[in-house]
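cron nightly-structures :: item 1 of 1
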Amino acid sequence: MNVSENGLELIKRFEGCRLAAYQDSVGVLTIGYGHTRGVKRGDRITQAQADEFLAQDAAGAAADVGRRVNVPLSQNQFDALVSFTFNLGDGNLKSSTLLRRLNEGNYRAAADQFGRWVFAGDILLEGLVKRREAEKSLFLS
């Protein structure tokens, strides 16, 4: 399964796009729509490069979801999980209660887990609260 345009728009909305390298909320150098691999201080990219990084990173997150989830998913459920994984990484998906509940076939209990992932370090971030609410809503739609 591939992430849809709707899923990519969700990621874009919450990641935002910055064409110059910056430190994210936990200090990771980031560029474009949340791209982190190989980013160095002072890096600059074009919008076309940001779009390409997004496509590559979203495809990687989609592959992670496909590898970890053992139950059928709707496109909306898949897109919500790709956004979640894009933001938090495969390791967090793999170890999450969200994935465990989902693979047990308990979709509702899985959806209820989105709201637990709203901290950067020990700091509650309102942006993450809104993102997880949007992901949960998409997952349940």
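cron nightly-structures :: done
The chain has one domain: 5-140.
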